[in-house]
Amino acid sequence: MSLKSRCVAGIAALGIAAALTGHASAQEPVDLTIASFKSGSSWFVYSATIGEILRKVLPEGSTIDTPPLGGGYANVRLVSAGKADMALSHGMTNRWAKEGIVAYDAPIKNIRGLLGGLDTYYLNVTAADAEPGTSVKAYFTEVNPRAVVGLNPPGSMATFAGEMLLAEAGASQEQLEATGGRYSYIPIPDIIAGFADGTVDATPQMITVGHPMTTEISQKADVVQLSPSPELLDVMAQKYGFGTAVLPAGTFRGQDEDITLPSTNTTLIASADMSDDLAYAIVKSLIENAEQLKSSHGALADFNPEDAWKPELVNLPLHPGAIRYFKERGWME
Hints:
Structural class: alpha/beta
Order of helices and strands: HEHEHEHEEHEHHEHEHEHEEEHHHH
Strand order of the largest sheet: 2-1-3-12-4
Radius of gyration: 21 Å
Low-confidence stretches: 1-14, 20-26
CATH topology of the largest domain: D-Maltodextrin-Binding Protein, domain 2
Number of strands: 12
Strand content: 15-25%
CATH superfamily of the largest domain: Periplasmic binding protein-like II
CATH class of the largest domain: Alpha Beta
Shape: elongated
Distance between the termini: 37 Å
Number of helices: 14
Number of domains: 2
Largest sheet: 5 strands, mixed
């Protein structure tokens, strides 16, 4: 570690100690679990880096577990049920949970936001045997109506959102089976291998710039990223709350043009039962080590800490400890 890095870590450690001073549990170790997603995913990289940052500054003897479990909408439930203390979650999913809509039967009231705007996530469909610029609907109804669609096992946001997108494009499981195609729910390594050996034709995924899975697929097979029509983008926004964002040209091999896709962002959430002091200390440490966080993955490069509190990014009530930090910085009124 460089002298500068050691100084930053030391300052952050003093900051957390100061944040906890004066309370009975001031220097007591804490045990935290951060839910993310499977090994090889962007979120797994994020959580590992968050764990590295926090291990440097939490009281001696603290443990931070970053297991490869959960997924986009499962993570809210893990935190709500007390199976994880913190989790990465999509801003859009937070809204669903808060309002009890789409993936949730009732509002979930015991989760809080720590920060948001970490990145931009795109709902993307990678497909073989198609020309660049092919729309999602045209691919499944005209180009390859017998397509085998590789989907992650149920429980991930990629699968849930992918099923919604395909259904709105006229390629639901029933519609595709009627034309000789099918859905195949298989692990990520099998989807990647399926593109390489021709047994998988398409996959919907929630991706980032530099997304490991999509990068590997595009390196091993001749694929394109399908282009949702403006009408499909509007439906995804109106029915499900997606935003839109541009996936820059050159993000993946064979993608020579910008593509406008449904989008959301990554947030960090916590249990409402987390102490205000601990939440404050976690947010303080991550914001003050933002450069380490941003350097861990290309998708985090544009993270702006000054915007991390904004309601349109977090879509949950902020934890009081997070509010305290953002107000101290002068970013919140």
